[in-house]
Batch of 4 targets.
Target 1
Amino acid sequence: MRFLLLYLLYAVALSVGLAIAGLRTRRSAAPAASAAPGAARKSRQRVLVFGATGATGREVVRQGLERGHRVTAFVRNPAKLTQSHPDLTVITGNVHDRSAVLAAMKEQDAVISVLGHHAYYALGQPQTRATQNILRAVESERVGRFVCQTSLGIGDSAGRLGLLYTLFVIPTVLALYFWDKTGQERAIARSRVDWVIVRPAALINAPARGRWKAGDVGSFLVMARVSRADVASFLLDQLESDRYLRSTPGVCW
């Protein structure tokens, strides 16, 4: 019983810490129902994607190309990106290499970062350091928009992944991973770029619904979910809209 009490105190303290360490931005109180855009969109953009070989990153690349954008995928292992398209350029590099990131940033209009990893207990905040490299290059090249995926459960969305995540998954598996994401958000907020931080609910591999809720979303009780395909669509929407500029909208079904 004592161990359980101590564990619950730890889980609650961690959630409070993630709330304090992450960003708190003003968003509309009512969630906004959104739909993936069709023909109405701006002209094609040159979009650099970090994390392009991940499950969400591949969706960003695919949908970005479908929307008519010229996409550059920055990857460590090009063999993991099986897509091919006349408007797709693949650059091999390490996101922790400042010179490689800066070189890839040349002549880009926008950047989308969906960086992640499976080394959940890694120290040193690798996502934060990678994001800082990207931000330096974005500022240096004066790229127009930086869109970064983090997660519900931090900042003013702390606890909104539901009790399962708040009391078990994050404290036991994702504590360092989520703490790293708060560092990402702080680094972005300190930058001089036009940014949008997107906080998806628990990501699942499911067909896109084409509709989602965005803004102050999620639940303190029930696990919030959303497909990677719908998140990719929402990320790409942020290249064409200023609605969530310099804010941290959550996204879930």
Target 2
Amino acid sequence: MILDLFRVTGRVAVVTGAGRGIGAAAAVGLAQAGADVVISARTEDQLDAVAREVAAAGRRAVAVPADLSDLDAVAGLAATAVEEFGRLDIVVNNVGGAMPRPFMATKPRHLVDAFGFNVAVAHSLTRAAVPHLLAAGGDGGDGRATGAVINISSTVGRVAGRGYLAYGTAKAALFHYTRLAAADLAPRIRVNGIAVGAAATSALDIVVTDDTLRGQMEGATPLGRIGDPEEIAAAVVFLASPAGGYITGKILEVDGGIERPNLDMGIPDL
């Protein structure tokens, strides 16, 4: 059955930034598709709530509260997965972000910080995970890659708009990191990314609760609405599962069809 290709039964995933929003939806989606998960974020209460949803799906979750800007802490999640579940098959690098700023207010340190949080953190976990991803795949008998890494990036990494200099540059770097890592880790590990448009997470609370701002974003989106975190989670499950087994080094655009940022920051000309 074709739907069986979307199952990840018996596999183990690490999901960062999993306390809410896209990360939480991805962790629950992977659990519903059959995986056990290690989930990590700053806030323990949020992780506990996600762990209960994973349990309701019939799978196990290990919650690791941590500051994921700490490269050692994020790398340690790979070992935690193996210690708790005996293997690691899937990595979802979801943690990231940077505050929008006008060009002249964007200092070099903002670029350094954005690169570190969005790219170096993803690399730290992926690098630590590689030996375990290879081990979980055995000898690669049929030549198919069994390990999967999914990097959550942003449409702002490929389209230009005012105010997104640090964030967009870092997310563009994560796109190319994805392609380069896929080349380095083929054929045993697949590495793909998701270019996320506007999704209804807590980061957009100010937008989704303001009729004017929400109308602006929906009007600038070809599909006429803001996305749902579960739609991003569905893409994660696809890329992690055998259904995505012939895909690596690619960026899947889940953005409602936008070709420019759909939120105008209102930054005037210099």
Target 3
Amino acid sequence: MWQPRRVQEKAALPTATGPASSGGDPAAGSPPFSRGLRLAGAAVHLYTASGSVLALLIVLAALEGDAVTALWLGLVTLFIDGTDGMLARRMRVKETIPWFDGARMDDIVDYLTYVFAPVVLLWTTDRLPGGVLGWVLAALPLLASCYQFCRVDAKTDDHYFLGFPSYWNVVAFYVIVLDIGPTGTAVTLAVLTVMVFVPVKYVYPSRTRVMRSLNLTVAAAWLASYALLLVQYPDPHPVAVVLSLALLGHYLGVSVWLTVAGHRRRTVSADGVQRAG
């Protein structure tokens, strides 16, 4: 996912004369893929890549002082990121387009939309302290997320995010909608930067198997609350705010609970092995 496998990719490239040019090698047991399926896979990659354009539009809206438009565009990027992986698996893009690293592209787009563009938005809306402290606080998410996105275990084998999953777009959303000042923003950025390095396993709503249906339902409800708060901006209804924060609290609570429960299971298992030995 994180590093190119150039030798494998080179071996996987179809030749002009071999059976792989039709999308598979029946003699080797791999299924042939129709042109339509391969085009669908390419369309999914383009769908993911569109997030990079949206990141640019968010930055431009931020520079023009249009925070609301920037946040609406951010909602679109959240929807794309929440659905492109499912579509990629459905269209079997790893098999139909084996020479293209969709996971790497997804990481690039996520960094732009989840990290870089939100930090620009916080800067242009004067949510950061002035002077050197503001520069330092703006740099913290950028640097911490650079580290996290390059960790090979940032997404665990059992489909969790390890450490705070760089949801700086969510931070920027609440900072602006709830009108949080520079001090509150500074504290939030500092605390969450530290949490990037704390090995809590955060739920990956579309892939974590435990409570998957409930987590997907909560994620969809939270996206709806995001839209509702934006419609009501700059005076969101208190009930809508509480509901949105409660849904966010569910995500955080389940993540911490599953992390603690997993640690206890490993401790009990290790203790049992030691006693048996």
Target 4
Amino acid sequence: MIRIMYAAMILLSGASVASGQNPADTSQRGSTVSNIPSDVVKDLAPTGTLRAGINLGNMVLAQKDEKTGEPKGITVDLAHELGRRLGVPVELVRFDAAGKTFEGLKAGALDIVFLAIEPVRAAEVAFTAPYVIIEGVYLVPKDSALKTVGDVDRAGVRVGVNKGSAYDLFLTRTLKAAQLVRGESGIDLFVNDKLDAAAGVKQPLVEYAKTNPAVRVMDGRFMEIQQAMGTPVGRDAGAKYLRRFVEEMKAGGFVADALKRSNQPDAAVAPPSTN
């Protein structure tokens, strides 16, 4: 009897120590307990880890921490919060362009992505409603004869774009006369090849123009870029949960707070979805 009681005391002591141990950072691991339905977890983290594609090529969505070199920003915050709720670790898979992120999802290397909603992508990505709205604008030489967005779509006008970006896909559909020149960096193409314009996300083009007096950002936008979360098509339970998750993150102030923390005041929180 004494031996049984002694053994029970050892077991209880061990359990107490285990429960008192300090777990690793839940922003990396996710919570240890999830009340999310198992089919949702299986859809969004089939390997047991939530693999999130992070596009460091869009400064509104993600930035590299100057001290640690690690990604930060709204997409990183959303990925960690989703992983916490699912109760799984989060792996941030880094890319330097949206097109490469999309290819990563198509290759089966990612479970969630943060991409602009585009018809070309919708065949592969089950999108949520947008969580943030940003603008697509043109950068032109300071003395350019192109004054308005409508002036750009003319014969002989050449526009540099990041290959596979949302604005590349949009302008491919909508420009009738102007020529798109695609590459790793639309700005580099604009400068090196002396193009008539560069198309891109407003924030980085404005930052570039601040330090380059020979260029200016054209007034007005040529598109509204609706940034959303997404998961591979066919993961229906996961996609449904992801849509609810995004709406909750907008309504509860999470998105607004993340934009503020990452110093992106010009990006607007998307309105609630009516679907």
